[in-house]
Amino acid sequence: MGFGLAYAQGFQTKAKQAVVMDYETGTILFQKNADQLIPPASLAKLMTMAVVFDALKSGRLTLEDTFTISEDAWRRGGANSGGSSMFAKLNDDIRLEDLIRGVIIQSGNDAAIAIAEGMAGSEVAFAGLMNQLARRIGLEQSTFRNSTGLPDDEQKVTARELAYLARHIIRNHPEYYSIYSEPEFKWGRINQRNRNPLLGKVDGADGLKTGFTTASGYALVGSAQQEGRRVIIVLSGLESIRERSAEAVKIMRWGFRAFEPIELFAAGESVGEADVYGGAKSGVSLRAADGALKIFVPIGFRDRLRMQIVFKGPLLPPVNEGDQVAKLQVLIDGAVSQETLLYAAESVEQGTITQRATDAIQELLVGLIRF
């Protein structure tokens, strides 16, 4: 997708790939090459932590569990590797809670490899867990090959899916998300500062992660909350640490000040209807999951908003109340800014023989017309 809407507002970024998302509504406020596959660099560690948090939540792990710094973790991720490191010693047994901080605050490759090996036996097996979770939470394009983000030709993500991954972590693991805002972490005698340039520069900034490889350029996934509203940003392909910092601060501040909320539908209000083939009724009423349905729109752009209901249809009975059967797409200047899942607001049983025959004739006629 393009980025004409933001340019129409006079907004630009030096990032090669970028997304700005409103956390609550999922509205994409800005996108630039959002679906282009790119190397994640250390942003892959967001998925590493998502797997860990998921295991902690389910009880498969505890913060007191210990993991060993293997020779592989020490050589590829340790002090002599030339990359980000927790500076753990070979054969050290380290509590998971400390390794988590080593990954989040210090971006330690040694810590990430130790977690992967401890949880799954190898990084290859752990990457399988990363991909399973990615698909489960709706990341369809991203592919992970290791826990660190170190270069691998097959490891690719998109800016849009990184934004959704950040949203998943914030929403589902608030008890661990707070670690992303901790300013520093000391392991052994070495104290390292959090590398997130938003912390201390943008009000309410509290996450998440920076990254860099030659292939990805300087990248960042960030989030901040102001007056009850949260914004998530993703930037990649920047040329320097300084440029990354300047662009991150600029785009985050813009995300908070340049948009206004619009309520599209009240809580429980019918959003529309989907056709039902051979049912006791010809259509089923649709609603969003819960609460009012709203979107954030650039100030002055209300008249450019359009909506469409998308579903594979006609639907076949029985349709049960609560079934997810469609999506509401909200478009601004022709670009999809927000997608919301829609659910059947009622049940529709199979119709009588007469009703089914009538629908069959109508579908045949429609098919002939389409042909």
TrEMBL record:
Any Pfam family matching the protein: PBP5_C
GO molecular function, one term: carboxypeptidase activity
EC number of the protein: 3.4.16.4
Pathway entry: Cell wall biogenesis; peptidoglycan biosynthesis
Catalytic activity: Preferential cleavage: (Ac)2-L-Lys-D-Ala-|-D-Ala. Also transpeptidation of peptidyl-alanyl moieties that are N-acyl substituents of D-alanine
Sequence ranges assigned to domain Peptidase S11 D-Ala-D-Ala carboxypeptidase A C-terminal in this UniProt record: 259-350
Coiled-coil residue spans: none
Keywords: Carboxypeptidase, Cell shape, Cell wall biogenesis/degradation, Hydrolase, Peptidoglycan synthesis, Protease, Signal
Its biological purpose: Removes C-terminal D-alanyl residues from sugar-peptide cell wall precursors.
Matching PANTHER family: D-ALANYL-D-ALANINE CARBOXYPEPTIDASE, TRAFFICKING PROTEIN PARTICLE COMPLEX SUBUNIT 12
Family indicated by similarity: Belongs to the peptidase S11 family.
Protein's name in the database: serine-type D-Ala-D-Ala carboxypeptidase
